[in-house]
Amino acid sequence: MSNGIPLTEALARYRSDAELGPLPEPVDVEALLNTYHPDHLRDSVVKLTVGANAGDSCQRELAALLQAEAFIDEADLAGTPVTDVDVLVIGGGGAGCAAALMAAEKGARVLLATKLRLGDSNTVMAEGGIQAAIEPDDSVQRHIQDTLRGGHHAGDPALVSAMAEDGPEVLRWLIQQGMQFEQTTGGDLHTRRAGGMSTPRLVHCRDYTGLEMMRVLREAVIQHRSIEVWEQSPVVELLSNETGQKCVGAVLTSLLDDRLRIVRTRSVILATGGLGRLHLNGFPTSNHLGATGDGLVLAYRIGASLCELDSFQYHPTGLLHPSHLAGKLVTEGVRAAGALLVNALGERFIDELQPRDVVCAAILRECSEGRGIRVDEQRVGVWLDTPRLERAQPGLLEKQFPNLMTRTRIAGVDPRAQPLLIHPTLHYQNGGVVIDVNGATTVPGLYAVGEVSGGIHGRNRLMGNALLDIISFGRRAGAAATSNRDRGPKKVTLEHVNRLRRELTIAGMPMTQRSPQVLPDYAAGGAWDR
Amino acid sequence: MTIKNPSASTADASQSVALTINGVAVNAHAGVTVVEAAWEGGVPRVTGVGCMEGVCGSCRIMLKRGKQVSVGLACQTFVENGAEVIFLPPASAPRHHYELNDFKDGWDIHERFQDIFPEAARCRHCHGCDVSCPKGIKVEEGVAQAAAGRFRDAGETFFECVMCELCDGACPELIAPAHVGLFSRRVTAHFHLRPPNLIHRLEELRQDKDKPGMTREEKDE
Ligand SMILES: Cc1cc2nc3c(=O)[nH]c(=O)nc-3n(C[C@H](O)[C@H](O)[C@H](O)COP(=O)(O)OP(=O)(O)OC[C@H]3O[C@@H](n4cnc5c(N)ncnc54)[C@H](O)[C@@H]3O)c2cc1C
Ligand code: SF4
Ligand code: SF4
Ligand code: FES
């Protein structure tokens, strides 16, 4: 089998005004996914042996981290300084900031601890937009239906309804915090239609929606009197009560001085985001540096149930070239605006606005069947036909996608003249910690919101639903966590760590690996000594 | 600061570039960013990094080339022979405090601004902020617009701001331009963004909720 057409040859062959043939007949979607989607790669999935999800399927590299030894034991706790707060929020992305702001609004003293800098997150990188059913011909019910269908009906209808119903109110709250959105000349919020939506529902701030959301929420958190922020302070373990059944705090380290700290609290809200930086199945990722799945590991060890651990979203259009941008995203908004996908032979091969998993599988099919464009032995991709879009709608790229234009300009590529070479990139964790409509996990005292949580997006997330879910459930959990008025912990222990260790020993599992990961190995130099 | 990759098109990855990062001598491949060079070179504690695409503002550096000193973002800066790079510590806590919920309406907003950011009226037009902004924002102009009460325009000037706060560090008057920019954007949305389609839907949902004795299923019919 040939490995595609070399880049120079494909470029020479490419013409933005070439006649494109009709789309091929739609294929059997199930067969396409089963053959080409990375979730279905051989050996990529194993069964968990211990913990709340024993017996369930889980991606192999993630399973190793979930069933690993902790970094902290009782000896570490002695003499460690203790801080008491009402609510501890772990993670300084959109979900964590929304939860902290809501808890503070409800009167709690809040500590927000985050691994890197406040606002350094997947949220800040989101480009495309946020969904909310606000157009006259749209409805909350349609939003629910689209979301469930997009998730292959694996999502929890109660969570999906809660999120969709919150949509308009979430936009109002964001505007109150000071977030701007694109408007029509009449002053309406401008909406776009993107993959899996039956009608336009994507509200946006040019292609900087996440940046605008994050800088506004970051400022609101920094300015809030009742919220204290600790940066460069990853949580490396949770704390439980004497029976190991309730979450009562966390152990943090500092990337600056390696000192441990204990935080004791009535409610912990996990908002640690996704896991792209685990580079599952060897894929590049669109995620920020801190996305190492820590929240899943912490929650699992303390006994929380997780879901859909074998389902990840690979975004169809990650940049393949130039190499320092490898894995970085070209927002789906570009396809929503009309950009087509074209293989090395100059043919379209899939309806570009199919759900992401389908488009992703189709691209991987083109690449593996020799119709891709080859950069070198490892890297093969297809074209995202931006010059054709520019011909059809001159000036559109510059006006609506300044972020994309800036990034490519620095790399010396002009998407108006040259098509972008793209390949699927590990983008989003579809599943995660099981929650109820208040973001409560199956462990008392522990909440989970945002990308770390699961059950909303089923086995495939639609564009714009993540930014909605983080604010919707972030606010819900912030309020619920504050209403927890019990007396707070008498004693903080590592009983849950001992419990999992016993289970691992009985199961005869190796305990050589420790988790959470905290930083990818290539970036860990000296900062986080395992 | 050069943010254009000099070797982007001609990238010859086998060529080696010698520089120092946080005092550590590093040999890097031509065409890589300072972030990649720091990791490959084993420079310890480089954790002021996040998105690696210039939108999170974390990777603040000072860059010395001979006598010339500049600031920038490490993920947008490509390695150069002889450069000395220092990753900057996190910015100190902000000195200006406000909560939007404390504001009654938009009529006294200019007065409020002067109370919160009294230094903004004292800009010396030294261009320190403009020179340090890695996004090429006309920071000085934005500050002037805000000081004149033109918050919508000021906010637009700061549209591409990635909150790196390098301009704050450069300002001799401690104006905190980054926060002036965010204030301008936030009050514009808070007081003036009133989209009819959103307001209409919120009102529909409110009426739905008030209708007694109906389950959600019935309403959705
Ligand atoms: C490039 C890109 C584009 C996207 N575009 C869109 C879009 O257009 N629309 C949409 O709806 N969604 C989009 N998404 C998805 C969406 O942005 C994310 O799913 C969402 O923002 C996640 O928010 P979060 O708050 O849960 O996590 P994050 O924003 O990632 O925040 C998690 C925070 O937790 C911190 N953290 C992690 N581990 C620890 C620890 N151990 N201790 C302390 N802190 C920790 C992290 O450092 C980070 O600050 C995009 C994602 C990416 C990567
Ligand atoms: S305006 Fe200031 S904070 Fe914003 S990007 Fe420029 S230097 Fe950074
Ligand atoms: S650095 Fe400060 S004083 Fe100088 S021009 Fe900018 S805002 Fe004015
Ligand atoms: S790492 Fe985010 S701006 Fe450089």
What topology does this entry show?
The complex is a heterodimer of chains A (530) and B (221).
Chain A: E1 5-6, H1 7-13, H2 29-36, E2 45-47, E3 57-59, H3 60-66, H4 74-77, E4 82-84, E5 87-90, H5 94-105, E6 110-113, E7 130-131, H6 140-150, H7 157-177, E8 191-192, E9 202-203, H8 209-223, E10 227-230, E11 235-240, E12 247-252, E13 261-264, E14 267-270, H9 294-301, E15 306-307, E16 312-319, H10 332-336, E17 340-342, H11 356-368, E18 373-374, E19 380-385, H12 386-392, H13 396-400, H14 402-410, E20 420-429, E21 432-434, E22 446-448, E23 453-454, H15 465-483, H16 495-506
Parallel strand pairs in A: 1-18, 4-13, 5-6, 5-14, 6-10, 14-22, 21-23
Antiparallel strand pairs in A: 2-3, 7-9, 8-9, 11-12, 12-13, 15-21, 16-20, 17-19, 18-19, 19-20
Helix pairs in contact in A: 2-11, 5-8, 5-15, 6-7, 7-15
Chain B: E1 16-21, E2 24-29, H1 34-40, E3 60-65, E4 68-73, E5 84-87, H2 109-116, H3 128-132, H4 139-147, H5 151-157, H6 166-170, H7 177-192, H8 196-210, H9 216-220
The complex binds flavin-adenine dinucleotide, iron/sulfur cluster (SF4) (2 copies) and FE2/S2 (inorganic) cluster (FES).
One iron/sulfur cluster (SF4) binds at residues 123-129, 139-140, 143, 170-173, 175, 177 of chain B.
Structural notes for this entry:
The complex is a heterodimer of chains A (530) and B (221). Chain A has 530 residues and is of the alpha/beta class. Among the domains of chain A are: 144 residues, Succinate dehydrogenase/fumarate reductase flavoprotein, catalytic domain (Flavocytochrome C3, Chain A, domain 1, Alpha-Beta Complex), CATH 3.90.700; 207 residues, 3-Layer(bba) Sandwich (FAD/NAD(P)-binding domain). Chain A is built from 16 helices and 23 strands. The longest helix of chain A has 21 residues. By secondary structure, chain B is of the alpha+beta class. Chain B has 2 domains: 72 residues, Beta-grasp domain (Ubiquitin-like (UB roll)), CATH 3.10.20.30; 93 residues, no CATH class. Helices cover 35% and strands 13% of the residues of chain B. In chain B, strands 2-1-5-3-4 form a 5-stranded mixed sheet, with helices on one face. Chain B is globular. The termini of chain B are far apart. The N terminus and C terminus of chain B are likely disordered. At the A-B interface, α7, α8 and α14 of A face α7 and α8 of B.
